[in-house]
Amino acid sequence: MSLKEEDRKVLVTLELERVTKTLVEMEVQRQNGLWGMVANRLYYSLFHAVSALLICDHHEVGTHRGAVNKFSLFYVKEGIFTVAEGKLYSQLQRLREDGDYNCSIDVDQMDVEDKIEPTRQLIDEIKQYIAEKQ
Fold first, then answer.
1. Domain ranges of the chain
2. Residue 134 DSSP label
3. Which fold has domain 5-133?
4. Angle formed by the axes of helices 5-31 and 109-133, to 10°?
5. DSSP class of 75
């Protein structure tokens, strides 16, 4: 991604702002018991955090699957983030896809509730990593 450093910082900031907004949306859906939408918003909050991370480190974001793969390749494989965190990201992507595209799967509270706090923690770790790099 050939961006000027100032533009890169703006994009990182915009992605991180989107993380915050998406987590708020997730909480509204959680309060209403709309677990498929909770999975969707939880996944997208992490996707935007990972996008900010990739942009910060001069990687292209590309597709959703590509972002998962790049997170694994550049950050999990290198020991910056844990294998469990990489798996969490992959699980959220599959859960979101199932909820959004598979009419025979109904995402429920048990599918997603235990992923909320680990996702928040991972997002906080990503934000800390980015803050240290900028």
1. 5-133
2. -
3. Four Helix Bundle (Hemerythrin (Met), subunit A) (1.20.120)
4. 160
5. I
pLDDT value at residue 66: 92
Burial (0-12, 13-18, 19+ Cβ within 10 Å), 90? middle
Per-residue pLDDT of the chain (134 residues; tens, 9 = 90+): 478 989 999 999 999 999 999 999 999 999 999 999 999 999 999 999 999 999 999 998 888 999 999 999 999 999 999 999 999 999 999 999 877 777 767 889 999 999 999 999 999 999 999 999 87
C-alpha dist (Å) from residue 48 to 41, 53, 103, 110: 10, 9, 26, 24
Q: Record the pTM.
A: 0.94
What is the Cα–Cα distance from 67 to 49, expressed in whole angstroms? Answer: 10
Residue 61, CA distances (Å) to 6, 57, 103 in order: 18, 11, 28
- Residue 126: partners with Cβ closer than 8 Å, 6 or more residues away: 49, 50, 52, 53, 81
- Which residue type sits at 85? E
| C-alpha to C-alpha distance for 85 and 46, rounded to whole angstroms | 11
